[in-house]
Design goal:
Strand order of the largest sheet: 2-6-4-5
GO molecular function, one term: DNA binding
Helix content: 40-55%
Oligomer: single chain
Keywords: DNA-binding, Transcription, Transcription regulation
GO biological process, one term: regulation of DNA-templated transcription
Pfam families: cNMP_binding, HTH_Crp_2
Protein name: Crp/Fnr family transcriptional regulator
Structural class: alpha+beta
Length: 216
């Protein structure tokens, strides 16, 4: 059954006729953690809206990930939406970072809604603004910040996205997501641990409770 509270908060402004059509066409599904949702080159059949959980959107280059952004609850995937205006082919990979629940709307239905319910564009304009900011932050982080700051920012982002502190993640996963080697990440983590920025425990990597989860 579709989460009615989510529907009303996300789409209520579009009116009763739209909500009736949404209930007729939308599909709700649960996605297990670490499950691939779509990969580059696949055809996009649905536009997803995340109810709960976290989804990582990225590309691959020589086996290394370049993260574009994370989809959080109440968000959609802008790059999936943008593909429906071309050939429906995905240019990204998307993987559930944790147990997630999504609403899937067929792209053919979205096409019709853009004509009959043009106010729906407000949702996607909002998504564009957020995703543009995410990508700009990613570029600034890569260009202007040292690797230790990038690693610390990444850990903070993951804790903020998942709500898990400590964060259960391997050095290899961090290295893959930041486009470096596991050995380098291990040295950096030891350095920032010695500086008191993190704690490495059997349960995972922890940010001290007096730390604020914000980029530096």
């Amino acid at each position: 059954m579709i989460n009615n509270q989510f529907i009303l908060e996300k789409f209520g402004f579009l009116g009763e006729d739209f909500l009736n059509e949404l209930h007729e066409n939308a599909v709700i599904t649960d996605i297990k953690s670490k499950t691939e949702i779509i990969r580059e080159g696949q055809k996009n059949k649905y536009v997803p809206f995340l109810i709960k959980g976290s989804i990582k959107v990225f590309t691959l280059n020589d086996g290394r990930e370049l993260i574009y952004y994370y989809i959080k609850p109440n968000d959609s995937c802008l790059m999936t939406f943008s593909s429906i205006f071309t050939d429906y082919t995905s240019r990204i990979y998307a993987i559930a970072e944790e147990e997630s629940e999504v609403i899937l709307i067929p792209v053919s239905v979205i096409h019709g809604w853009l004509i009959r319910f043009p106010e729906i564009n407000r949702i996607f304009y909002h998504e564009y603004d957020k995703r543009f900011s995410d990508v700009m932050n990613m570029v600034n982080d890569a260009v202007f910040h040292r690797l230790d700051k990038r690693v610390l920012n990444y850990i903070r982002q993951q804790i903020s996205a998942t709500g898990n502190n400590p964060l259960k993640i391997t050095h290899r996963e961090i290295a893959s997501n930041l486009g470096t080697s596991r050995e380098v990440v291990s040295r950096v983590l030891k350095k920032i641990e010695n500086e008191g920025e993190i704690l490495q425990t059997k349960e995972g990597i922890k940010i001290p409770v007096n730390e604020k989860f914000k980029s530096v």
